[in-house]
Amino acid sequence: MLRAIEFFQELYGPIIDRGGNMITTVTLNAAIDKTIICDEVERRGITRSREALAVAGGKGINVARAIFKLGGSVTATGFAGGHNGLLIRRMIEAEGIHHELLDIEDNSRMCLAIIETNTQSVTEIYDPAPMVKQEEWDQLMDIVRRLAGNSQIVTLNGSLPKGLGNDAYYQLIGLMKRSNPECKVVLDTSGEALREGMRARPFMMKPNKNEMEVLLGHPLSSYRDAIEGVNEVMGHGIELVVLSLGSDGVVFGYRGEIYRVDPLSGVEVQSTVGCGDALVGGIAQKIVESGDIVEAVRYGVASATSNLTSKTQANVRREQVEEFFRHIEVKQVC
């Protein structure tokens, strides 16, 4: 374990006690994220990787990593169970990220991303989610209620484990609004969990194109469709809707106005995995720093762009993010 800690300190820098709890991230389905880099997968044969990396993951943990790397004060919470959960906690501690992960009986996931450099394709394989008991859910809600009381922003990220209903995020958002009405809640999930969570009116939602299409029930076949989709979600009482379109950039709406952010050209891509989480982390951190929402989305895009240059999720570099931030433009479209 000592060698693992030394490895993460070499990768992410020395452990620093940042203190405070300006941002809380919630990961209900934490994982060990393993990345295999190879030239090409040999189907029905043996593929030998050129590189293998492993980090603590799950979307909220990735968001916490991005915030931490950007100089923010963050606490990661959620479920981490079994032997994998123990390793997840040790990995986070080695990175220097403060956490209050709840130990549960069932084993947390391991998720595999295979990057084929010949085709620049990414294949992801996820273990089954763990089962969460009612008493474990009750304990986590108590933790989230307490952390939200001292947080400016809470992000709710990723899929749901077994044992929780589709309204799990709806419950948490309501809980946090009662605990701290000034806290801004960010929701980044998919499917029915996203639909149910939207009913609780979080401050921000960040669907990608596929998630938005499922939420609205129709394809986004054009740029105009993307704008109308963002408008439709804002109509449900969501102040900030950030629609990530991958290589086509971002369309976002804030209090009835729509903007676009085009991607930077000439960036050498190592991996696209975790870009959405780096986007959320950058937005959250800049909101805490300045309160300027439009600038926060621009900073989030800069953070996601930095993520493209890394082989592991949300391993952004602050100096690089600041450089990208200077070149990224936001254009109001309506």
* SSE order: HEEEHEHEEEHEHEHEHHEEEHHHE
Number of strands: 14
* Uncertain regions spanning at least 5 consecutive residues: 1-20
CATH superfamily annotation: Ribokinase
CATH architectural grouping? 3-Layer(aba) Sandwich
State the helicity in percent bands.
25-40%
Helix vs. strand class: alpha/beta
Tell me, what is the CATH class? Alpha Beta
Mean pLDDT: 93
- Overall shape: globular
Q: What would the CATH topology be?
A: UDP-N-acetylmuramoyl-L-alanine:D-glutamate ligase
Could you give a short account of the major beta sheet?
Answer: 10 strands, mixed
Radius of gyration: 19 Å
Q: What separation lies between the terminal Cα atoms? A: 54 Å
Q: How many separate helices?
A: 11
Largest beta sheet: what is the strand line-up?
Answer: 5-4-1-8-9-10-11-12-13-14
- What's the structural domain tally? 1
Strand content: 15-25%
Summarize the structure.
With 334 residues, the protein is α/β, with parallel strands linked by helices.
Overall description:
The protein is α/β, with parallel strands linked by helices and 334 residues long. The protein has a single domain, classed as Ribokinase (UDP-N-acetylmuramoyl-L-alanine:D-glutamate ligase), CATH 3.40.1190.20. Helix content is 40%, strand content 22%. It has eleven helices and 14 strands. The strands form two sheets. A ten-stranded mixed sheet has the order 5-4-1-8-9-10-11-12-13-14, with helices on both faces. A four-stranded mixed sheet has the order 3-2-6-7. A hairpin with a 2-residue loop joins strand 12 and strand 13. The N terminus is likely disordered.
